[in-house]
Amino acid sequence: MSYDKLNEKIMDMQDEIIKAVQGCVQIDSVKAAPEEGAPYGKGCRAALDYALKLGESLGFKTGNVGNRVGYVEFGEGDEMVGVLGHLDVVPVGEGWTYPPFGAEIHDGKLYGRGVQDDKGPTIGAIYGLKAIRDLGLPINRRIRVLFGTDEENGSSCVRYYIENGGELPTLGFTPDGDYPLIFCEKGAHNMLVGKKITDPGKIKVKSFHGGIAANVVTPYCKLVVEGDIPVAEVEGVRVHKEGNDTIVEADGFGAHGSTPEKGINAAERLFEAVKDVDFGGDFQHMINFVRNELNGETNGKTLGIYYQDDETGETTVNLGVVNYDGEEMSLTLDIRYPKNAVVADVSANVEAALKKEDMGVLRCIITPILYISKETPLIKKLCKVYAEETGEHLEPLAIGGGTYAKAFKNMVAFGPEFPGQGSAIHQPNEFVEIDKMMKSCQIVAAAMYELAQKD
């Protein structure tokens, strides 16, 4: 069918959509300490309230499940199409030209944390729902736009929704990935590893910190040591004295944890610069693990967890957040693997590598692989929508990234990033080109309409 009327309706609302996205982006919704009525902090709760009030102002039925997941709904019928977005964001980090929560527009681009991941697409989906309703398009499945507030830290929000009786979609998608469509997301181990400090070593390490999230390559880290230590010349590493302390800082380049090969890890650079220092003790064990077991690799070969599959790719390993405070030390490992991986062996081999350095697993969240056949109606309908809206007939993708699609059965990631667009997600100066944002709104609206038709 032609989506001309739907597309026109979306464009008629462009100014309203942009204003609504800006309002949401201006809320700092990085996860924070829980408070009464705000399980993920005040910012996440404020973003949730914002989307709920928007839905109410547009005349939709809304719902709030435990101040963790909200939704906006339209239509009738026993079956429900789910469009699942999220309103929490990763920490802003350093290096912004424009205010990360300013939602400023420059040269046709909207800047701010969350404009792409995932506030812009989520607010856009609410307006897609409005377009379907206002045009009176016939649907025989309800459409529910859901928005969680803990996606960036493990998706506990959706688990809460499910465990507390939230209605499960019949089918659906999350606008939190790539076009034309993602039919496979690798399985994952999200691990916090380390130990309590029992041996302070020969040199007093006062602190070592770096990273902004487990699913971001460490972009910066800082080591504070009492006394003098030799520091080799390594790109991105600088050293200075503060009183009797030696301060070593390292800059890397952040990248998404699903593609760590695109980044430069600051912690690895720093450990290279101090490789000739005999720290001894537990801090030395941390250095040895990173240098000898991770070995500068992003595919897990030395760890013994490398897998490769022609359809679904290969293993990736990301070192994200590092910490040593004199009482405990820890590292985060974001490990993703294709459909031929042996999940038990991933756990066992990482644990064996840690044991060599007197370290262990402090926490591990295992996320199963998502794999939906390209022959299913869900995949075929979404591919059809993308082809008709863009004129491009492209094959569905298998990726390392983990999206909200894993939260529900019969759900995949669909947009908002276009092929060849280049990603600013999780980066300083996250932005979206307004014309691409509006085109994605049109595609999402058409997809919602198509999935709301029973076969």
TrEMBL record:
- Keyword Zinc present in the record's keywords: the answer is yes
Record keywords: Dipeptidase, Hydrolase, Metal-binding, Metalloprotease, Protease, Zinc
For biological process, the GO terms are: L-arginine biosynthetic process; proteolysis
Annotated source species: Fusicatenibacter faecihominis
Q: Which cofactor does it need?
A: Zn(2+)
Highest taxon of the source? Bacteria
Which molecular-function annotation in GO is an example for this chain? zinc ion binding
Which gene is transcribed and translated to give this protein? pepV
| Keyword Protease attached | yes
- An example Pfam family from this entry, by short name, is Peptidase_M20
Name of protein:
Dipeptidase PepV
As for family, the record states: Belongs to the peptidase M20A family.
Q: What is its EC number?
A: 3.4.13.-
InterPro entries recorded = ArgE/DapE_CS, Bact_exopeptidase_dim_dom, M20A_pepV-rel, Peptidase_M20, Peptidase_M20A
